[in-house]
Amino acid sequence: MAFMWSGQVAEELANFYISVYTQYLNTRAQGQAITLKIFHNAFDCCGIGGAIELFVRDTCPEGSFLQQITYSSCPNVIKGMFQSNAPLVLGGFLGTAGVMLVALVCSCVLNNSLKTSPFLY
């Protein structure tokens, strides 16, 4: 799913961020502030492009005033991360599934050999 629909997932996540950002400018709700902080710290970004609103600067990652002005736009960072990391996510998922399959086969073989072992009786 990460590989096949990475563009769509990135677009939806970027749209969600933009929605929370614009709603936060109007409401300044605590839940939206926490969501923005999570996005900002996870992706090391802040804002939707252009100047960062004064109210939003409190949710940006820690840093000097100059650093907060130069943060990348979150929608661009989110889309870029999904474009570059989707094959890695797919590889990690398939690798984990392969290791789990090998462990399952080994445990079944070990279980069957212990059931038929003459040393257990």
Separation of termini? 49 Å
Quickly give the structural class. Answer: mainly alpha
C-alpha Rg (nearest Å): 23 Å
- Helix and strand element order: HHHH
How many E-type strands?
0
Biggest pleated sheet: none
Please characterize this protein's 3D structure.
- There is one protein chain.
- By secondary structure, this protein is an all-alpha fold.
- It is built from four helices and no strands.
- It is elongated, with a radius of gyration of 23 Å.
- It starts with 5 loop residues before the first helix and ends in a 6-residue tail after the last helix.
- The mean pLDDT is 82.
Keywords:
single chain, about 120 residues, mainly alpha, about 70% helix
Write the layout of secondary structure elements.
Layout: H1 6-27, H2 30-43, H3 65-69, H4 74-115
Helix pairs in contact: 1-2, 1-4
Q: Quick gist of this model?
A:
By secondary structure, this protein is mostly helical. It has helices at residues 6-27, 30-43, 65-69, 74-115.
